[in-house]
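Now for one specimen:
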Amino acid sequence: MSETRVHTRGGRLQMPRSRGAASGFLLILLGAWGALVPFVGPYFDFAFTPDTEWTWTIARGWLEVLPGVATVLGGLLLLTSGNRATAMLGGWLTVLAGAWFVVGRALAGPLAIGDVGAPVAATDVKRAWLELTYFYGLGALIIFFGALALGRISVRSARDVAYVQRPVAAASAHEPAPSEEVTEIQPTDEERHRGWRNMFGGGGRRLAHR
């Protein structure tokens, strides 16, 4: 009985692409919001100074565009990758980008990367919403979904094992089944005559007379 083994490419690193798809899609949306809102927010009277559309500053590039693009990139890796290591790289990238949204403004002064300005708001409620949706709340959501994706990816479930073993099952299905029929081997005429001589004549050998 022979055993056929099919080695699957990737082994334990393979996983279904759907494992990080939902988190990846949400992270892409959050990252796109974080990178674009400083430039389109002034259209809706929802901005930081300078409150003019599509105004580029170094601070906006470092504190909003950079982490937003990193979040989008990490979300794309989570959404499209069927490799566990690549997807985990995307998850960690989004977590770091979310953390930078949260702490970046506090480190902007020591790092000399400028200031994003003040929230353009007449009330404390609007000012709080601007702070949350541009930085702190946005960063917290990105960290949450990135950590959620990392938790799902790091667990190797029975579904992952079945997914990896699919090529083995497919190869076994195409392998011909062993036959259970018994084939009877008939002796040839020469073997049959030789058997009679062995029985009565000592295998055809002549006896020596003394």
Remarks:
- The chain has one domain: 11-168.
- Residues 11-168 form one domain.
- Confidence is low (pLDDT under 50) at residues 1-10, 203-210.
